[in-house]
Amino acid sequence: MRAFLGALYLAAMAPLSAFANNEAPLPAKAEALLEEGRAAFREGDRYTALRLIGEARLIAPDNPHIRRAQADIVMELNAPFAAERARGSSDPGIDARQAALLVRWGEQVNTRGPAHQFDGTDRAIVELRAQLQRAENSQPVDQGLVTRLRRDLVIALRDRGWWQQTLDEIARLEQHGDELPLYVLQAKADALLAVRLPLRAIPLYQTVIAEGGYNRDARVGLFYAQLEAEQLDAALATADALAAEGSAWRKVGIDSRPSPNDEWLSNQTLAAQARRLVAMPKASWQRLQPLVEAAPANAWLRAEWGEMAAAREWPRRAHQELLIARSLSPEATDIRISTADSLLRRRHWRVAEQEITALAEIAPGNGQVRRLQRDLANYHKAELHLELRPSKTQGGGPDAEGGGLDGTLQIYTPPLAERYRLFAADIRTSSTPEGRSLTSNAIGAGIEGRWPDLTVTLAGWNHSGELDGGGASLLAEWQPTDHWSFSADLQRYSEMTPLRAQEAGIRADSASLGTTYTFSEAGSISVNAAIADFTDGNNRQQWIVSGMSKVHDGHSLDIYLRPTFYTSNNSLLGAPYFNPEEDYSVSLSTAIQHRLWRWYDADLVQQFFVELGSYWQENYSSGPIGTLRYSQYWQPSSRTWLHYGIERSMRRYDGENEYSWGLFLDYSQRF
């Protein structure tokens, strides 16, 4: 506002200079006004000084002393362009201030939409670099001017999102012994955070906060730095401290009527968002819900509401909320990023690719845009899955399968026509019942189709080993809502065929139906029913009912309970494979999942799994069953995922316990 007033004042006076003679002696009245104005300026009363010297200029429009004094005042009012007009010429100091003002205009003023958001900043960078080169080449070098120009260039580069260039200019300042002012220190922290050096950014933010006045941007930057450095308790404390300040309403100026406090609302949103970002979606939902209900037309609240719905495993609701947010603020880059992410989740890959390409043009340095580009690139890659499960068993009676080695290898092509992938697979199973070595190998190929709510997989198989033969499978998975999902699986030469049955020349065809109701990420219940028709005349039916409940939701520790009920019956007695007339089991498992380490895309989680239950079989005594397992989930990058571990289990066959040790490895790779 001060810069605007100064410029407006001088623009109104500028025509007068054309009618004055700057060679004329200074009239006494003008000289007196000039001295009074200078005195007011020395006392800090800049507006009185501007008025008095302006009156003097009305008398002597082109007097160089009056013009210089007027230029000095409007420079103090941060109006360097008006100062140049007042003085009639520029100098390196005025040029530097003009370039610095261009930096602020580039950050704050954009009337041409997101595609042109950096136009002003780009002009400022060009001007600053030109002035910096002139200042460094001048003799003698004005080191103070060079320092001011380089500091302003740092801010412009930071605003532009050119992070490494920002750090390079700061390094040059530090090489010349410049003690960085707080605003440059904050720019350095921002750049370090952007290039994934949060541990170096944290102390800089803390210095800016401790030594400067109230600075919300620095405190928000500190929150994200602590979050990225996995200092999660500290990050939550920083966000909660901001949320605890102020109130929803405030009074501005002399107006006695309260007005909404946008900063308070932003702080509440940040505290809710913090819970989502540290993997506590239920807590984040509870904090944000009353805010959304109070301000349903706030685009930023609706966007965060959508992100939280996605974290709660409600992708359709998330997409709806983000589309609402987009309609409320169509050009907001952050909302467009969230919407593009939702398009990927909902399998609208082509539309997502168009949006991500557009975002990359307007925000190429944005870290979230780069993440979207990475996720899109992963979608276009081929994929490999490998599973290995060696085991060694003891006991279990004559019908137990025994230990062995199970393995699966699947390779998927990159997507074809957006929704289809071809795949090839090799499934190998082996066991050693009663000292005999049994093997089965199934080699297959097929096609997978993926739509927003439906996945269909069709494959043909060739079986060899104990029993040769052809087979086929069809799997359909349908999720019509965020809560309900259904599956149907048809198999010719089914995976339900035991190796002992194959050894006897018997195979089975199977069909299964399943449904799951998912409350949220914290709970679900599933029912699965299957029938298998064996070539020896046996008909097997089995039911599985299971549930899941997250009983502890922490940022680094989650605990899940899973009750499971299983039952089956067979129509044929005395088959040469484990074939109980009727059986059932009831079990309860606990999974304790603890994040050991995380660094951006890399993640390491350990899990302790305990299952205890009871198994009953017709004509045999019941007995305990159970599993102890320790495993780790390791994701070294967005393209690679591993799950590996060791387990000890106890099962019952015909009234006898079988004890087993097993190792397992699951590996996925995009390439």
Topology:
Blueprint: H1 2-13, H2 28-42, H3 46-59, H4 64-76, H5 80-87, H6 92-108, H7 119-137, H8 143-160, H9 163-175, H10 182-194, H11 198-211, H12 216-228, H13 232-243, E1 249-250, E2 259-260, H14 262-277, H15 281-294, H16 299-311, H17 315-328, H18 333-345, H19 349-362, H20 367-379, E3 383-395, E4 404-412, E5 420-431, E6 438-450, E7 454-465, E8 469-478, E9 484-492, H21 499-503, E10 508-520, E11 523-534, E12 539-553, E13 557-570, E14 582-599, E15 602-617, E16 620-637, E17 640-653, E18 656-670
Antiparallel strand pairs: 1-2, 3-4, 3-18, 4-5, 5-6, 6-7, 7-8, 8-9, 9-10, 10-11, 11-12, 12-13, 13-14, 14-15, 15-16, 16-17, 17-18
Helical coverage, percent range? 40-55%
How does the helix and strand content classify structurally?
A: alpha+beta
Largest sheet: 16 strands, antiparallel, barrel
Q: Spans of 5+ residues with little confidence (pLDDT < 50)?
A: 1-23
What would the average pLDDT be, to the nearest integer? Answer: 90
What coarse outline follows from CA principal-axis ratios?
elongated
- What is the number of helical segments per DSSP (H or I, 4+ residues)? 21
Measured by DSSP, the beta-strand proportion falls in 25-35%
Radius of gyration: 36 Å
Distance between the termini: 56 Å
List how many beta strands DSSP finds: 18
- Main sheet: which strands, in order across? 3-4-5-6-7-8-9-10-11-12-13-14-15-16-17-18
